[in-house]
Amino acid sequence: MRSKVRKVAIVGVGYVGSTCAYSLINQAICDEIILIDRTPEKAYAQALDLSHCMDFVHARTRISTGTFEQCSDADVIVLCMGIRPKNIKNRLEVLESAYSIHKPIIAQIMASGFNGIFLAASNPVDLVTYMVWKISGLPRNQVLGTGTSIDSSRMKTLLSHYFPVDPRSVQGYVLGEHGDSQFPVWSHVTIGGKPVMDILSQHPERFRHLKLDEIAKKTKETGTEIYTLKGSTYYGIANALAYIIHSILNDDHRIIAVSAVLEGEYGQNDICTGVPAILTRHGIKEIVELNLTPKEQEQFKHSCTVIRGALASLPPL
């Protein structure tokens, strides 16, 4: 019999945080969820509303509001804080506000004695993940971000429309920044185990309408399109969060493209970016280093350069 209560704390209960809680409840991923927000009344209302799901789901999840002091025994803390500025051109533009919001909150959480896993969803997620790692002082395996998990899913979904197959039959990753410098690793994308590059070369007439550059562009711009049309993205990223949390709490050893701290992998050090990683009960067990083509190596290097340029604008961490 399992005696350990699986506890998740969600900090920031706007669209992403509340939808993440909803996904966790519907999938019966954890035993307890606490919601923390700068507006306690909002957190209370979200918890009350979500508690009314219990009669219609497979398992009961305790959900309540909480404080940073109650984070001490959490297994995973999900960070969904941030502002929603208008007319932004890319995610890096909210870096200054992300720093001012996260620095005091991470300090308060660590003061509680927390020693679990931080999972960042706030944008710019690669930089926020790096900030959390530095401020918290936790080992790098215990700090990760959603990274390019959602971008990889968007790429798979787009490809599934062309072939057509179930998106889960498409395997592959988008690497680098969760932003404009990301790129799909086409050399490692497969459809049912068959490399997509082989499929295209063997069936040029059948798939002549499929342009990989256009797929990459659509993958990168989809988030902005959703944001422009409805003001926020939350269903996809919330399910990505739930998927990552499930993999951690159940010690799945599943490989997911997340924002991870690199210390030598892919020839990079002291930086956070989207790479495939094996996730376990202890966070990141291992970063999977794909054998990139020369072009992909340059794309990865460029993406890291973009992230480093943004990091240089931050105060010392």
From TrEMBL:
Family per similarity comment: Belongs to the LDH/MDH superfamily. LDH family.
Any GO MF annotation of the entry: L-lactate dehydrogenase (NAD+) activity
Keyword Oxidoreductase: yes
Main location: cytoplasm
Organism: Paenibacillus solisilvae
Chain ranges of the Lactate/malate dehydrogenase N-terminal domain: 7-145
EC number annotated for this UniProt entry: 1.1.1.27
Matches recorded under NCBIfam families: L-LDH-NAD (TIGR01771), PRK00066.1 (NF000824)
InterPro entries the UniProt entry points to: L-lactate/malate_DH, L-lactate_DH, L-lactate_DH_AS, Lactate/malate_DH_C, Lactate/malate_DH_N, Lactate_DH/Glyco_Ohase_4_C, NAD(P)-bd_dom_sf
TM helices/strands, residue ranges: none
Residues the entry annotates as binding NAD(+): 16, 37, 42, 121-123, 146
Compartments reported by the entry: Cytoplasm
Protein's UniProt name: L-lactate dehydrogenase
CDD domains: HicDH_like
Domain named Lactate/malate dehydrogenase C-terminal: residues: 148-306
Residues engaged in binding substrate: 91, 123-126, 151-154, 233
Subunit structure: Homotetramer.
EC primary class: oxidoreductase
Protein task: Catalyzes the conversion of lactate to pyruvate.
Pathway of action: Fermentation; pyruvate fermentation to lactate; (S)-lactate from pyruvate: step 1/1
Family annotation (PROSITE patterns): L_LDH
Chemical reaction(s) catalysed: (S)-lactate + NAD(+) = pyruvate + NADH + H(+)
Pfam family, one: Ldh_1_C
HAMAP family on file: Lactate_dehydrog (MF_00488)
Keywords: Cytoplasm, NAD, Oxidoreductase
Catalytic machinery residues: 178
